[in-house]
């Protein structure tokens, strides 16, 4: 059973993640709509979303941790590569770039929490 503090942290993570996902996926979808290639759109979304996500996670979720900008940037570089591989895989089965991007985004949520909790935002 998880503690009340951990449950509250997970809830804050999910709320911040929903906001971050709306920002990042909205940017991705907007760039696709403007005619960009799905992989370029994903790269631009990740770069612009990383700073936004750092603020929401560091100030809203993992509030007891010290500064972790470099670890966060490195974790997001790894996250991006995993997400890119997922998008490539999903694109073999899902022709629609919007749906392929959405599936890929949601598939990495649990991994992202574990990495942020264990490796990035340490007390």
Give a topology summary.
Elements: H1 4-33, H2 38-60, H3 69-93, H4 97-107, H5 109-120
Helix pairs in contact: 1-2, 1-4, 2-3, 3-4, 3-5
Describe the structure.
It contains 5 helices and no strands. With 123 residues, it is mainly α. The mean pLDDT is 89. Helix 1 packs antiparallel against helix 2 (38-60) and helix 2 crosses helix 3. The radius of gyration is 15 Å and the shape is elongated.
Give a brief outline of the structure:
With 123 residues, the chain is mostly helical. It has 5 helices and no strands.
Helix-strand topology string: HHHHH
Would you tell me the overall average pLDDT?
Answer: 89
Biggest sheet statistics: none
Low-confidence stretches: none
Molecular shape = elongated
Number of helices: 5
How many domains in all? 1
Query: Which quaternary structure do these chains form?
Result: single chain
- Report the helical percentage: over 70%
Give the C-alpha Rg: 15 Å
Number of strands: 0
Class per helix and strand makeup: mainly alpha
Family: Belongs to the GtrA family.
Keywords: Membrane, Transmembrane, Transmembrane helix
Protein name: Putative flippase GtrA
Main location: membrane
What are its keywords?
5 helices, 82% helix, single chain, 123 residues, mainly alpha
């Amino acid at each position: 059973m998880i503690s009340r503090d951990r449950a509250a942290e997970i809830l804050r993570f999910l709320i911040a993640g929903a906001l971050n996902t709306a920002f990042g996926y909205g940017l991705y979808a907007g760039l696709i709509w403007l005619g960009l290639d799905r992989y370029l759109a994903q790269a631009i979304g990740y770069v612009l979303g990383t700073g936004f996500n750092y603020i929401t996670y560091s100030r809203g979720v993992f509030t007891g941790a010290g500064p972790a900008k470099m670890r966060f940037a490195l974790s997001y570089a790894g996250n991006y590569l995993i997400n890119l591989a997922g998008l490539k895989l999903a694109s073999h089965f899902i022709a629609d770039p919007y749906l392929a991007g959405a599936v890929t985004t949601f598939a990495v949520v649990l991994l992202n929490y574990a990495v942020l909790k264990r490796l990035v935002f340490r007390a």
